[in-house]
Design brief:
Immunoglobulin-like; 177 residues; signal; globular; Copper chaperone PCu(A)C
C-alpha cells in the first residue's frame, strides 16, 4: 500500500517539472537580453583545414604489420623524409582500423638483460633533409585499440598529423614481417 502514494508523488513531480522549466525559461527570456553565438559550419571548418600547406615530406616503405585475430594494438612502419627547410613534428594521426595512432619509442629497460619496452611520445621530430626510419624492433607508430585486425593484402587508410600542416592521408598495405 505504501507504493501507491509514492507512485502518485513521482507522477506529480514528473508532470510539474516541465511546467516549472517552461516558466523559468519564459522569465529568463524577459529579464535578459537575447544572445546569439555564431556556430562554425562544417564547410567553414573544412575550409580552414584546407588552407594549411601540405607537409614537406616523402613517404616510403610504409606497411602495417599483419597480426593474429583478436590483437588489441598494431604497428605501422615507414620512412619519412623531411624535404623542407624546417623541422617537422609528427604528432600521430588516425586510421581506418584503430581508435588512435601514436608515435612510440623503443626503449631499453635498465637492469633487465637486454629487454626492451615502449614509450608513448607526444611527437617525433624530423630535421630538414633527414629521414625518420620507423621499423620493426625500433620506433614505430602504434595503432591503439584496434577496431578490427586487418588482413594480409588489405589496404589501411592512415592519416598522419604534422604540426602546422594539413593532414597527410596514405593507403598502407598490410604485410607479414
Amino acid at each position: 500500500m505504501s507504493r501507491i502514494p509514492l507512485l502518485f508523488s513521482l507522477i506529480a513531480l514528473t508532470l510539474a517539472a516541465p511546467a516549472q522549466a517552461q516558466h523559468h525559461h519564459a522569465v529568463s527570456d524577459h529579464s535578459m537580453p537575447s544572445m546569439s553565438m555564431p556556430m562554425p559550419t562544417k564547410s567553414a571548418t573544412s575550409k580552414a583545414a584546407t588552407k594549411l600547406p601540405a607537409a614537406p615530406v616523402r613517404v616510403s616503405g610504409a606497411f602495417v604489420q599483419a597480426l593474429p585475430p583478436g590483437t588489441a594494438d598494431g604497428s605501422v612502419y615507414l620512412n619519412l623524409t623531411n624535404t623542407g627547410k624546417t623541422a617537422l613534428k609528427l604528432t600521430g594521426g588516425t586510421s581506418s582500423v584503430s581508435q588512435a595512432v601514436t608515435p612510440m619509442q623503443q626503449t631499453k629497460m635498465t637492469g633487465m638483460a637486454g629487454m626492451t619496452g615502449m614509450k608513448d611520445l607526444p611527437a617525433m621530430t624530423i630535421a630538414p633533409g633527414q629521414t625518420l626510419k620507423l621499423s620493426p624492433g625500433g620506433d614505430h607508430l602504434m595503432l591503439y585499440r584496434m577496431k578490427r585486425v586487418p588482413l594480409v593484402g588489405e589496404t589501411v587508410s592512415l592519416t598522419l598529423n604534422f604540426v602546422g600542416y594539413a593532414p597527410l592521408t596514405l593507403k598502407v598495405p598490410v604485410k607479414r614481417l
